[in-house]
Each structure stands twice: as C-alpha cells, then as structure tokens.
Amino acid sequence: MRPLTVDSLNPAILNVQYAVRGELAIKAEEHRVNLQENGQASGLPFDRVISTNIGNPQQKGLDQPPITFVRQVAALMEWPDLRRLAPDVFPKDVIARATELYEEIGSVGAYSHSQGVPLIRKSVANFIAERDGYPSNPAHIFLTGGASYGVSLLISMLISTPYKTGILIPIPQYPLYTATLAQHSGAALPYHLDEASDWSTAIGEIEAALETAAKDGISPKGLVIINPGNPTGALLDEHTQEKVVRLCEKHSLVLLADEVYQTNLHRAETHPFTSFKKVVRKLDSPIPLVSFHSISKGVSGECGRRGGYFECVNISDEVIAMMYKMVSVGLCPPLAGQIGVDCMVRPPKVGDESYPLWKEETDTIHKALASRSGLMAERLNKLPGVSCVDSPGALYLYPKIELSDKAIAAAKEAGKEPDAFYALALLDATGICVVPGSGFGQKEGEYHYRLTCLCPGVDEYVGKLEKFHEEFSKKY
Amino acid sequence: MRPLTVDSLNPAILNVQYAVRGELAIKAEEHRVNLQENGQASGLPFDRVISTNIGNPQQKGLDQPPITFVRQVAALMEWPDLRRLAPDVFPKDVIARATELYEEIGSVGAYSHSQGVPLIRKSVANFIAERDGYPSNPAHIFLTGGASYGVSLLISMLISTPYKTGILIPIPQYPLYTATLAQHSGAALPYHLDEASDWSTAIGEIEAALETAAKDGISPKGLVIINPGNPTGALLDEHTQEKVVRLCEKHSLVLLADEVYQTNLHRAETHPFTSFKKVVRKLDSPIPLVSFHSISKGVSGECGRRGGYFECVNISDEVIAMMYKMVSVGLCPPLAGQIGVDCMVRPPKVGDESYPLWKEETDTIHKALASRSGLMAERLNKLPGVSCVDSPGALYLYPKIELSDKAIAAAKEAGKEPDAFYALALLDATGICVVPGSGFGQKEGEYHYRLTCLCPGVDEYVGKLEKFHEEFSKKY
C-alpha cells in the first residue's frame, strides 16, 4: 500500500497561500498555549499574545462586544420557548423580530432555501435600495456563509481555462483572492495601488496589467476592487469608480466589488462610501457586477456566525441558475449567519425599544475604531524608517518599514522574507502578532505589515511596537 | 462589452448535477408559493406540498422537534446574560455546559481555530474513542460546516489530474459525490450495490469498477462507502467492512467513509453500526481513512446550523497541514454548528437534570423513524410493480418501480427520464415531492425514487402515493 503523500495531491492545492492564518498566526497560537499552560515559566518575555493579525473584533482579549439586539434575536430563534418563559428580559421589538423570522423560517435547525431565506433576501434588497436609491431584486441576492464563500464561488465559476483565465487583483490584496485563484488554477493579474497617494486606485495601473496579461496569453475575466481597501483602508472616490466601470465595459470584465468594510468609515464626512451598484446604475452601465458584503466586519463583527451576501447586477438568469445549482450542492448557508444578516440590514429604528442601546453600542464601536486608527497612524509615522497612510476606512493599517541591508541578509540566512523576519522577531519579543506585507503583496524591495485597529490599550501596545522597532533597528 | 454567458463559465460547472434540490424541488417550491399566495384558487389538486425529497427533519410541515438540550445551550451561548437574567428557566447542566463552552470559546461572534474549537475537538475524540474502543487524536479532527463541506474539501484535494483521477462511488449514491467530482474534474468510478440482497456492497463489483478504470486510463485514488447507505439505508456487516479495508490496502485507496447516519438504526439489535475507524484499527491496517459525521442527521436533525466533522486516520502530518491551510482560507466553521457538534457527542448523562427530557425526545424520534420506515416499506411492497427494500438504517426508502413501455415513451416525448416523469406526475397530482432514481444512479432500464421517512401522517401520505400509483398505472 502506498501512503497518501503531499506530492500525490492536487498540485493546485500546494500553491495556495493564506498568510493571515499562516506561519505567524500558528506561532502566535503556540505562544498562547505556552503562556496558558506554563505562565511565567513559559520563558517568554511577554505575558499575553496580542492578535492584531486578523479582523476578528470579538475574539478573546479584544473588547468589541456583540450588538445586543443581534444576540437577543438569535437567542429567541435558538429557543423560541424563551418568548413564553422569560418574556420580560427581551425588548418588544426583539420579540416582534424573532416572531416574524420564526414564522417565516420555522426552526433554525432546518435547511433553508439554498440561496437564503426569502424574507431575509427581501430585507437585504430593501437595505441596498435605500442605500443606493436604485432598486434591488431579492432573486439576484445570495446569502452566504461569510463573504469569502461567495468570492470563492464566483472565482471557481469564472476560471474557464486553467492558468489561462485571469482575474485582476489589487496589490496589496486580501490573500483570499490569490488563495482562491491558486486553488482554482486561475491567473492572478496584479495591479498596484499607489501608496504615495494614500493607496489610491489608478486606472493606468489596471490597463498596464491588462497589457501584461495580453502578452502572457492570459484572458482577463474579472476585476477585483476592495473598497474600503484591505489591507490599505483606502476609499475610492466616485469619479475613480466611474472610470473603473468604464474600463470594465471596455474590456468586458466582471466587476467583483468586495465591499465588506462599507460601514467602517473613520472620516465619513470627507471620505464617504459609494457602492459600485450605485455607480453602475447611475451610469446605466451593462457591466456584470457582483458585490459582496458581510456581517463579520462593520460594527457587527459577527465573524463566527459565518454570514454575508452577494448581489448580482446585470447577470443573466441562466448564470444565476448556475450559481443556484452550485450553492444547492452545499445545501444552505448557516441559519445563524442569515439571522445576523437580517439584523445587520434591518437594525432597530428610532422609537423601537432597542434603539437607544443599539445606537450607543454602534456609536461606541465606530468611535473606538476611528480614534485608535488615527492614533496608531500618528505614532507609527513618528518612528524612524516607518511611514503609514492614515486610512479613512476598514479595520487595518499597513505601515511601510525600511529594513537595512543587514536585516535583509539576516532574513535571507533564516530563509524568511525580510518583512516576515521582522514580524517574527516582533512576535517573539512582544507577543504582538501582525501579518507581513509579503502575504498581501508589495512592490519589489518594499516591506510592510498589516495590523488591525481592534486592540484596546493602544498606548501600551503601540509602546511595545515602538520599543521593539528601536531595538530591531539598533540590532540590524 | 460582451455579456457574461453560461458558455463562458468554467465548463466543469456545467456538468454538476444535484437532483435533491433540482427540477422536482424547484417545482415543489413553486407549488408551495402558489398555495400560500392563492389558496384554493391555486388550481392545484392538493392543499399542501409534502417535501419528502430531502433529509431535513426540522423543516416546516414535518414534526421532528429539535432536542431541547442543544437549543438551550445554544441560546445561552448567543446571549450569555441570560444566565443572569433568567437563571431559573435553564437546567443546571445546561448552564454548566454553556459556561464551560463560553470560557473556552468566548464570543460565538469570533472566528475560532480554523480546524474547530480545540475543546470541542477533544469532545469529538472522546466520543470516537468511546464508540470504537480505540483512541482518537483531536489534532486529526476537523470540524466542518456540515459533512458536505468536508467531502468537498477531500475530493478537491485528491483529484490530482483532471479527468484522470478517479474516486469509486456506490450506485445508487448521494449526488453530493458526483456533483463534487464534476466540479473538481474528477472521474466518478461507479460500482453497483446489489438490490437483490438488500443493497449490499459486493467486493466483486468494486474490483470490476477498478478494472474498467484501468482500461480507461483512470487512476483510482479513493473509495466512497456510505454506511448506513443513502439512498439505500443498507448497513455493511463487519465482515464486508474488513474486505473493503483489505481492498483499499491492495489498491492503495483512500477510504472516504460517509457515516452521517450512524445513529439512524431502525433494528439495531440485528443491524448494528460499526465504524470503519474501528475496523481499520482492529485490522491494524495502514489505509488512509477519512470518516465523516454530521449533526444534520441522526436524531439531532440540526441541518440549518451547518455542523459536522471528519476524522483523519493514517494520514501524515504534512497532508493534515495542507488540509489546515485549505480550511484556514475559509476562516472557520460556523460556531453554531460547532456547538451543535459538542452537544451531539456529549449529550446529557444519567443523573443530569436534562437527561430525562433528552432521553424521552431522542427515544421518541428513533421510534417514529423506525416505525414509519417499516410501515412505508410494507405498504409500498404491496403495490403492483413496486418493490422496496425494508432498510435497517438512515432516513430513506428507495423503492423500485416498473414502468410500462407506454410510460417510458410518454417520458421520452416530454424530454424527461422515465422516473423523473413519474415523480413529476406524482408531485403535480398529490403535492408529494420525491427524488427520481436517475438523480442517484441505477442500472440501465431500472427506475426508482427516494423518499424520506420523516413525514408524519404516513397513512394519509402513503394513501396518496398508492392512489396516484394506481391511476398512473391505469393511464400508462
């Protein structure tokens, strides 16, 4: 009997890389277990791991609480008898919402429609219509187990010829895109964002990537825009969005708009979010657009429920039927995630019993994220050899670090990318876990890392970062 | 701008078929909406749709309630304040379980470890060790969003050469296998189960399929066994299981054991379940085994939570690391599903406050399934031209129907498979939705359909089936 070896597996799998949960995250988990089991005897020079590698707002050690309204509705859906057994502990609008959902869904233990509960898809369509001022069709909405599931589905459907079908992706990018392209043997066509102008999207860069693809015999099928950006936190202005849509028209590209951070806006007055759906409708453009949203980000932060949706615009019923067929094989998205979507797109309204608490909770989160983000950028920018765009959106900062030749040589000797070498040293010295820029992509010879603005105690934590940076700079 | 057409999509997608949620299910949903909106004015000759096409025990119109223990734990995890606000409505062991899980997990709104919460994986390992009498390693267990997710992951990893790597699948089979193989360009290598001996698995049939594969230049990589069977409900005896394991050794096959119905046993005294893990360990066999389990079936019936797990046996750390990498791209399985897994593998014990109710609820479900299954098989077997194996396990019956030349000709004229033609006529006449055998596979010239034993009111519902069969037989 031959054993099952890595070499005998699907070779596309070997090419998949996902740094957000990669080497750094695995080592951080080892440190965490070590501290938990051995305490001071761990021999580590820190007493806790600070996981700033992943946009996971409700994880242990961070302080973002769930929105109470969501959890109350979810608890009633889990055990509907609570409406009778403990009626006084739930606000009236919570009971009304849970009752409405229960009448539509029945048990959350049943499979729903594969595309998602019809009533919740209607709620999503209303939310989109209100946001954009253009109608939305529930039949064109798919509820999903997080936005990632939808992105993966779309990429798997679009790659028609292995290694010859390409998708344009921003650099830096959220590595879900390169991972999914690798898995489905698609070609990643990178276009660079412009760090010097706050990580803006330049049409010229996308056109250059299209020219390279043509030379390489790769047929471009789609364009990914992450707005607000991940890891950059940049926001596209409407004028740029219009140019993107026209470019998609010209080159027959499907626009994949990753808009999961649409409500994470730190300076909404000067940097508002406009959806690509709105721009496409305003221009009356025929481009196929799929836009993704999620309950994992925003102020909801409900990552563990696995909930999200995508909306198809200008996509034929035949192609939507194919999507339906594919999601039906997976049966249905998790009901807990679907209920989370309903609560996100239909929050309490002024006058509802839950509204004051909901308002207070969401305002607090928005303020904390904006203030931390600004404070961190300010402090990082003061460090020698570090520059950091003060992002107007999303949950991350993506500082650039200058590394000396000595540091680069040491990294090479350790068999690591220079920024991974820096990040590993940071983790070992301080317990702070970030993701090196090589996991997101960057220009040759440049080095970055991504950190979230989710950790409380910015002062202490940035203090550790500063101290480490100084020591690292001294050593190398 | 060229529009996005079906022809321009990944051609593998076009080949995917999944009958359980296919034409019949879509038409049934149309009838349901029609009845809901128009009532008697719908013009339909029935007043409700009976969805016996899918193993979805808690769906509306069926009467299988959730297990209270699961839902109470889940409600407390959703809103932990309930422990304080309504302490008297929860049994003590429920509060203890929720507290233990909360201390480990923290918020259910946070991503967990991509492989699943460590404590819950330990619970699964204990459950397996107790079931089999052989140890189980939590590091080799992956919690998943339903068993389907795990099956799809494994198949996507095993198919190393498009169209040239094959997986042996039983015929009839649960169409997840053919759908997933089509999606990942794998070759389905069918072996027939023997209806004449209660759908038993014959080693000779598998060997014959291996010979055919060799002639076709297809390299077999894995063998799927569904035990208890879907759609057949058959159970493998231990002697056959041993032969299956030896065959996998001989041909270097990865054994994919779909054991999601392991507790759905209608006559456990004469037809017990033995896991493949136990057989592999007992034989001290080196074959790589992946076994799948789910909270969607059994008496749990928690389909909508999307929870399950797979255990890897005799699989190297390098291959497990690849699996971890792949699941990490999808971030983590839904927490609601993971909590469901914990409750399934660690139910209340004698002496716990929840135990009497848990025992009553699970006994009631077991009895109802066994009695309905037997009753339905008996009645179906009395119909002229119908024969039905009285299945000892799972949730389904798979009766064979003889169709006249006239019926077959009418089907051909309608552009339908003959059994799909029969099933559509059944749906239109009675509102009963079944899945035609062509969706699962059957021998040339044979016709079947699958129906679940989940619907209450067997007498009324089988009565409708009988009346329809008589009329159909008269007409054709």
Brief sketch in words of this structure:
2 copies of one chain form a homodimer. In chain A, 44% of the residues lie in helices and 12% in strands. Chain A has 476 residues and is of the alpha/beta class.
Provide the fold topology.
2 copies of one chain form a homodimer.
Chain A: H1 11-14, H2 23-38, E1 50-51, H3 68-78, H4 82-85, H5 92-105, H6 118-132, E2 141-144, H7 147-158, E3 165-171, H8 176-183, E4 187-192, H9 203-215, E5 219-226, H10 238-251, E6 254-258, H11 276-282, E7 289-294, E8 308-313, H12 317-329, H13 335-345, H14 355-382, E9 386-387, E10 396-397, E11 400-401, H15 405-414, H16 418-430, E12 432-433, E13 435-436, E14 449-452, H17 458-475
Parallel strand pairs in A: 1-12, 3-4, 3-5, 5-6, 6-7
Antiparallel strand pairs in A: 2-8, 7-8, 9-11, 10-14, 13-14
What does this protein look like?
The structure is a homodimer of 476-residue chains. By secondary structure, the first copy, chain A, is an alpha/beta fold. Chain A has 2 domains: 6-64 and 360-471, Aspartate Aminotransferase, domain 1 (Alpha-Beta Complex); 103-345, 3-Layer(aba) Sandwich (Aspartate Aminotransferase, domain 2). In chain A, 44% of the residues lie in helices and 12% in strands. Chain A contains 17 helices and 14 strands. Chain A has helices at residues 11-14, 23-38, 68-78, 82-85, 92-105, 118-132, 147-158, 176-183, 203-215, 238-251, 276-282, 317-329, 335-345, 355-382, 405-414, 418-430, 458-475; strands spanning 50-51, 141-144, 165-171, 187-192, 219-226, 254-258, 289-294, 308-313, 386-387, 396-397, 400-401, 432-433, 435-436, 449-452. The termini of chain A are far apart. Chains A and B meet through helix 1, helix 3, helix 7, helix 8 and helix 10 of A and helix 1, helix 3, helix 7, helix 8 and helix 10 of B.
